[in-house]
Amino acid sequence: MTVDEPAKRPSPPAVIGHRGYSGKYPENTLLSYKMAVEAGTTALEGDIRLSKDKQLMMMHDLTLQRTTTGMGPLVEHDYFGDMDQLRTKVGDQPLSRLNDVLDFLVEPGLPEDLWMIIDIKFDNALEIMDLVHELVHSDAYKDKQELLQKRVVLGIWRPDFLAKTRELFGDAYKVCFIGFSVSGARKHFLGKVDYLSMAFPALADADGLQFMRDAQAANQKVLSWTINTVEQMHTCVVWGVDGIIGDHIELMLEQVKADTQNHTPLKLRRTQLYYYCIKKIMSVASYAYIGV
Fold first, then answer.
1. Is the peptide bond preceding residue 226 cis, with omega within 30 degrees of 0?
2. Residue 177 and residue 156 in contact, taking contact as beta carbons nearer than 8 Å
3. Taking Cα atoms as reference points, which of 11, 167, 28, 23 lies closest to residue 86?
4. How far is CA 131 from CA 50, 79, 125, 148, 171, in A?
5. What is the pTM for the complete model shown?
6. CA atoms within 13 A on the CB side of 208
7. How many Cα neighbours within 13 Å face the side chain of 264?
8. Is 232 helix (H, G, I), strand (E, B) or coil?
9. Could you tell me where the DSSP H helices lie in 142-265?
10. What distance in Å separates the CA atoms of residue 11 and residue 195, rounded to the nearest whole number?
11. Which pLDDT score, from 0 to 100, does residue 6 have?
């Protein structure tokens, strides 16, 4: 379980706002995304799910009650005449759809190199990919195709979603695998996508770090989530991770530039054991529920 350390990368990892600036603002809302950009984030990340009337909702959970004034499974609710009347419990914001976010991403004045991972949750029906394709190629964005292809990264969890993505989009959009399992990522996605976004415990041993080296050698960027403690931030810097996804934009921006020369990642044996156990649990759950 010894955590070997790869050579430190010459530049700090990218800072990616998890569901926007969710440490301060209601997650997956336009406000959260806008405030993340204002705070200086490198990139954004947000989740999509499909409503009953086939709208692409910015929502992490299967149900509405944790984050909104609604109740029950999102898939049982229409957007028009239902969820368009709901508000977030924190911050009193309207619920956002993917088209709202795309409208924001093509606004003038945003940082030239801003990009966003659209996390297409693994338990969505595969048809969601057709609806994403239909949206980005709609008349609303017919003059923005080049910009969208630069800004948007399609985040997927399953091999069948990768096949569908290639069928619909070809190589026009960058693709990011998101997952818990190093073995699954190595088998299905190594050398096949642009980014590999791995849960922090998945990288927290020699096997995980070797996977990261192999991916980077194949010109793939490795991201890690959800990075919310200073210890995790410094560890990712020392490991050489290409990007960190977390809730606290300003803290991440500060800590990825901190002096980590004397930082020893996961130096306590009990910390190594903790992440080892979490990794094993995640791997089993990933195979059982996602098939990867």
1. yes
2. yes
3. 28
4. 9, 15, 11, 16, 18
5. 0.96
6. 31
7. 6
8. helix
9. 145-151, 159-169, 182-188, 200-203, 206-217, 230-239, 249-255
10. 17
11. 52
According to DSSP, the residues that pair with 197 across neighbouring strands are 178, 223
Strand partners for 24? none
- For the chain, how many residues are written? 292
Helix or strand (DSSP H, E) at 37: helix 30-39
Write out residues in the chain with pLDDT < 50, as ranges.
Answer: 1-2
Closest CA to 229 of 241, 244, 240, 207: 244
- Tell me: the pLDDT tens digits for 112-161? 999 999 999 999 999 999 999 999 999 999 999 999 999 999 999 999 99
- What pLDDT, on the 0 to 100 scale, is given for residue 245? 99
114 neighbors 105 (Cβ within 8 angstroms): yes
- Give the pair of three-digit tokens for residue 256: 């990825």
Q: Are 132 and 98 in contact (CB under 8 A)?
A: yes
Please say whether the beta carbons of 128 and 120 come within 8 A: yes
Cβ neighbours of 154 (radius 10 Å): 25
Residue 87: CB atoms within 10 A of its CB come to: 15
